[in-house]
Design brief:
heterodimer; A: mainly alpha; 75% helix; 0% strand; globular; B: alpha/beta; six-stranded mixed β-sheet; disordered N terminus
Chain lengths: 283, 274
């Protein structure tokens, strides 16, 4: 009996260490990457990095102001494309489709779209918006990123809409609210924080995408005017600078990586904060 | 249990109610008439041939053991059953003589309000909760006045008048339930349905709501589902006893609780089952 107990304690302790170690590895990867970025790129993140254009090869200094603004512009376009489709699609799925065959197909298609390699999305946007106009553009890049946001927004917004208690729907309907009215005035406001979180997380997810931008937004060493020209973005700049043979560029690539990761972390933390404040509504 | 229930019942019946009940054994005005209602969830029949009436400005209680169909019956009164897939209703339900099944459902629900088992305030301010029904109905009345009136009717005004713009979730459970009653009253329904409104509340909040119901009779007609027999005895003028989807007995409350005509009713109210 005593031996049996000792054996159990041993197994328990062993499993605890194994699971704990795995959890520690999972967390430490993030800190390792962050530390590595700071180590290599921290010194290049300065005021000029945020305000200056890239300098020609051989000339030191300069920054990535155009790429930071470019990423912001691309992400705004992505929101314009991805959020309406994802949001209204989610409303259809959660409120109107029931559990029929259409809902199944839409959900399945969204999950598949989520798994489509991002470079394939890039090729698609290239065919749709670059080939016909014969030039790269911010619009094509934003469209590609927007497509990538659709499935993430759709599925998580659907989950948040479904999580709104049935009692709230019934409460509104019992007051004579039509279905549309109930959705607009009770269900969406109740799920609002969750949906915002979903959108921000989708945004953070596509902010670092490089592949869909390579042959849609392409890149630009100068300011891009309007929405119809090739445009620089942080991920593509990282890609270009990292494979270049110049040490100076490598440092700037690390710095860009650090800035990009920083931005994504901020968006993520912001999203979590919104969601946690909404806790009482989704109880 | 047996003896205590009997005692509670006899203590709580107000003798004047007994007289009133007897006088109106066949009440002259019915707000709602339920005629031969059969109800099905998919292939399963849950209500059998229910025929009864809801007397105007009276409180009618629906009692019975869990699963007897009392909530289902109540939910047909404002057609909330239609929100459930596969639900089917046969028979007719008349509100002021007109079949509710052939009316516009949103119009119907404005006239027949409902309060649910668990308080379900919207994630909005106290004020906006009460104003909700008025706003969606495009009410021409000054909303602030109507909100105050409803909150007073629900005996909640004094507790919330200084923080109307706080979230409804900051209220206690009992206050939330009274808020839901105020919300339902704001659109001035003719008939108010309550589906076990006190089952999630403590005894003090329950007492407040029971007191409220008796006062609300002047304002509207009330139908209440309760699993609590003493509650039915305390607040209602008429009681319907359901068992396995059948209406076993429907009579004035004092009559039901003192001299039930069906042996099954007697068995239930004396606590022999359920």
């Amino acid at each position: 009996m005593n031996a049996r107990l000792r054996w159990r304690k041993f197994v328990s302790g062993f499993m605890l260490s194994v699971t704990g170690a795995c959890a520690a590895v999972a967390v430490s990867v993030l800190f390792f990457i962050l530390g590595y970025l700071v180590y290599h790129g921290g010194s290049s993140v300065n005021w000029a990095f945020f305000t200056k254009l890239p300098t020609p090869v051989g000339e030191s200094g300069g920054g990535m102001a155009n790429a930071i603004v470019g990423t912001a512009k691309l992400l705004s376009l992505a929101v314009l494309v991805g959020v309406p489709i994802g949001f209204f699609g989610a409303i259809y799925l959660a409120e109107f489709s029931g559990n029929g065959i259409i809902a199944f197909v839409v959900r399945y298609a969204a999950d598949l779209l989520n798994g489509v390699p991002s470079i394939v999305i890039g090729i698609f946007a290239y065919t749709m918006l670059v080939l016909p106009f014969k030039h790269f553009s911010a619009i094509a890049g934003g469209f590609a990123l927007g497509l990538m946001m659709v499935p993430i927004t759709l599925r998580s917004a659907e989950d948040f809409l479904r999580a709104v208690p049935r009692a709230l729907r019934e409460g509104a309907m019992a007051l004579g609210a039509s279905k549309t009215r109930t959705i607009a005035t009770v269900i969406v406001p109740a799920a609002y924080r969750g949906i915002m979180t979903a959108i921000l997380l989708a945004l953070a997810r596509v902010a670092g995408e490089t592949a869909p931008l390579l042959f849609t937004a392409f890149s630009n060493r100068f300011w891009s005017h309007g929405w119809n020209e090739p445009i620089a973005s942080l991920p593509v700049m990282i890609f270009t600078y990292a494979i270049a043979p110049y040490d100076d560029w490598h440092r700037q690539a690390w710095a860009a990586g650090l800035v990009l990761l920083g931005l994504i972390l901020i968006v993520n933390i912001f999203a979590r904060a919104i969601l946690s404040r909404g806790g009482t509504i989704l109880r | 249990m047996h003896a205590s229930v009997r005692q509670a019942v006899s203590v709580n019946i107000n003798p004047t109610t007994v007289t009133a009940g007897r006088e109106t054994a066949a009440p002259a005005t019915m707000r709602m008439n339920v005629n031969k209602v059969n109800f099905f969830y998919g292939p399963k029949q849950t209500l059998f041939d229910i025929t009864m009436g809801i007397g105007a400005n009276k409180v009618t209680a629906l009692i019975g053991p869990s699963g007897c169909g009392k909530s289902t019956l109540l939910r047909t009164f404002n057609r909330m059953h239609e929100t459930v897939r596969g639900a089917r209703l046969e028979g007719e339900i008349l509100l002021d003589g007109k079949n509710i099944l052939s009316q516009d459902v949103t119009q119907l629900r404005r006239r027949v309000g409902m309060v649910f088992q668990r308080p379900n305030p919207f994630p909005k301010s106290i004020f906006d909760n009460v104003a909700y029904g008025l706003r969606i109905n495009g009410s021409k009345l000054p909303i602030a006045d109507a909100v105050e009136k409803s909150l007073r009717h629900a005996a909640l005004w004094d507790e919330v008048k200084d923080h109307l713009h706080k979230s409804a979730y900051e209220l206690s459970g009992g206050q939330q339930q009274r808020l839901c009653i105020a919300r339902a009253l704001a659109v001035e329904p003719e008939l108010l349905l309550l589906d076990e409104p006190c089952s999630a509340l403590d005894p003090i909040s329950t007492a407040k709501i029971e007191e409220l119901l008796v006062q609300l009779k002047d304002l509207c007609t009330i139908a209440i589902v309760t699993h609590n027999m003493q509650q039915a005895a305390r607040v209602s003028d008429y009681t319907a006893f359901l068992l396995m989807g059948q209406l076993v007995e429907f009579s004035p409350t004092p009559h039901m609780f003192t001299t039930p005509s069906d042996p099954r009713t007697e068995a239930y109210i004396t606590g022999r089952f359920g």
